């Protein structure tokens, strides 16, 4: 039987082999299918196996080839959902973070990691025009949105001690599913989430927002928060932040901005994001439009006092024994989790390795790619775009064929991957560009693949 402790020599050999696998995977990306040719039967047969009494040793690395073959690859031709491309320096950061195995609960538990996380959170805030906001990294936009609405609830109608009282939250009809989920989990109840109609550009209508708030007040309901979205999940629409901020200010409501998809683009096109700094809280996702390996969400806010009222439930065994405010700092006093991993190291390494300009240009290229796709669609009368291209998501359809069948064909052909959405009740094809590996040729392949798949359906 093996022992958990292994020799330095064996560790060094296996580390070298694992890095070799990573290097050949990255080198192979260009030639890989955009989606693996696999089924649940394949993956179950390959990967459902017992945990053996005796260890297999270094041989386990041999599994990597088939895992990679049955995994969604980070190629430049994956355009589904909002999936960042997994920048390799960030991946090396993940490895080194795991090697250090810090528990980033507080400065006392993880001195360097805590200072690094606070620094990179400051970089993100500054990059999107919200200098001075504080916050923390988390698993993703859903977790950030949940924490934001917990703060909103505690700021406007404190519930931590006495339990939730009836209250109302407002968001547009295009809001991401993580908001109804958060409202449900926080005991506010999905029926108290008002879905405000959007205009023809899929932006929240502030006249309808104001009317809904007024109607609620007249009915004796208690509004607490407005969720604006910058980069709606379907079409990338940006809600009108300055107007929403006016309503929030007038009505004394918390303004949360869900920037999980689009927020980081404020680094490249700040003019589209005016009013972002009026937010009380802002969700960002570095694993989306900052290309970082999963996972890396972030919640920024400008009310650390409310973050503490909301999340501070310290027990004696984690009591901080320092008067120095930096050494006394604890993430668990300002966010949900206690044990937390060292997410910040990948950002620390990747953002500094490439520099701010490289990220700005990569985001600009993604925005250009969306415009190239829109222009290519316009050249094909059999295709029709169904929403304006506000950021990097493009929604379109074939005018005369079954679009669901086209999408299935496109995925099976494996040359590009798109996802789908519903716009005005119609099934649409959706391509989203948050991928530093994508080239203009990859973008042009989208329309040729759609046309080829549509033709195949004739046979
Ligand atoms: C607008 C928006 N909000 C929230 C989320 C949820 O983010 P995550 O998947 O990181 O939890 C997404 C994910 O696509 C999103 O697009």
TrEMBL record:
Similarity section: Belongs to the group II decarboxylase family.
UniProt entry keywords in alphabetical sequence: Decarboxylase, Lyase, Pyridoxal phosphate
Designated name of the protein: Pyridoxal-dependent decarboxylase
Gene3D superfamilies: Aspartate Aminotransferase, domain 1, Type I PLP-dependent aspartate aminotransferase-like (Major domain)
Signal peptide from the UniProt entry: none
Organism in which the protein naturally occurs: Mesorhizobium opportunistum
Reported cofactor(s): pyridoxal 5'-phosphate
Entry-linked Pfam families: Pyridoxal_deC
Keyword Magnesium found: no
């Amino acid at each position: 039987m093996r022992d958990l402790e292994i020799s330095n020599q064996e560790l060094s050999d296996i580390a070298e082999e694992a890095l070799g696998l990573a290097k050949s995977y990255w080198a192979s990306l260009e030639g890989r299918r955009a989606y693996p040719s696999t089924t649940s039967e394949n993956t179950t047969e390959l990967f459902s196996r017992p945990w053996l009494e005796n260890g297999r040793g270094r041989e386990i690395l041999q599994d990597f080839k088939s895992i990679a073959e049955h995994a969604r690859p980070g190629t430049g031709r994956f355009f589904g959902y909002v999936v960042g491309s997994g920048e390799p320096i960030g991946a090396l950061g993940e490895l080194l973070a795991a090697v250090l195995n810090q528990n980033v609960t507080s400065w006392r538990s993880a001195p360097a990691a805590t200072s690094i996380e606070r620094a990179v959170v400051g970089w993100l805030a500054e990059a999107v025009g919200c200098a001075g906001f504080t916050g923390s990294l988390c698993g993703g936009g859903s977790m950030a949105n949940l924490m934001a609405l917990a703060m909103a609830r505690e700021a406007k109608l404190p519930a931590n001690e006495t339990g939730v009282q009836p209250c109302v939250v407002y968001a547009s009809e295009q809001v991401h599913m993580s908001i109804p989920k958060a409202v449900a989990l926080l005991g506010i109840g999905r029926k108290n989430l008002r879905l405000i109609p959007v205009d023809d550009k899929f932006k929240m209508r502030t006249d309808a927002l104001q009317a809904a708030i007024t109607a609620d007040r007249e009915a004796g309901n208690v509004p607490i928060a407005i969720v604006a979205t910058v980069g709606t999940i379907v079409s990338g629409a940006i809600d009108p932040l300055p107007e929403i901020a006016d309503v929030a200010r007038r009505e004394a409501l918390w303004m949360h901005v869900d920037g999980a998809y689009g927020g980081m683009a404020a680094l490249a096109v700040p003019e589209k994001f005016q009013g972002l700094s009026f937010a009380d809280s802002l969700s960002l996702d570095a694993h989306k439009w900052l290309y970082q390996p999963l996972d890396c969400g972030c919640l920024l806010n400008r009310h650390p006092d409310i973050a503490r009222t909301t999340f501070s439930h310290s027990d004696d065994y984690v009591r901080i024994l320092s008067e120095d405010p930096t050494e006394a700092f604890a993430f668990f006093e300002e966010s949900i989790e206690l044990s937390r991993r060292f997410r910040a190291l990948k950002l620390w390494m990747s953002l500094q390795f490439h520099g701010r300009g490289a990220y700005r240009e990569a985001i600009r290229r993604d925005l250009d790619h969306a415009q190239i796709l829109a222009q290519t669609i316009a050249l094909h009368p059999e295709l029709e775009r169904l929403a304006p291209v506000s950021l990097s998501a493009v929604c379109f359809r074939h005018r005369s064929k079954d679009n669901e069948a086209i999408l299935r064909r496109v995925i099976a052909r494996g040359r590009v991957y798109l996802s789908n959405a519903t716009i005005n009740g119609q099934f649409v094809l959706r391509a989203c560009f948050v991928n530093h590996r994508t080239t203009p040729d990859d973008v042009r392949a989208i329309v040729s693949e759609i046309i080829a798949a549509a033709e195949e359906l004739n046979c």
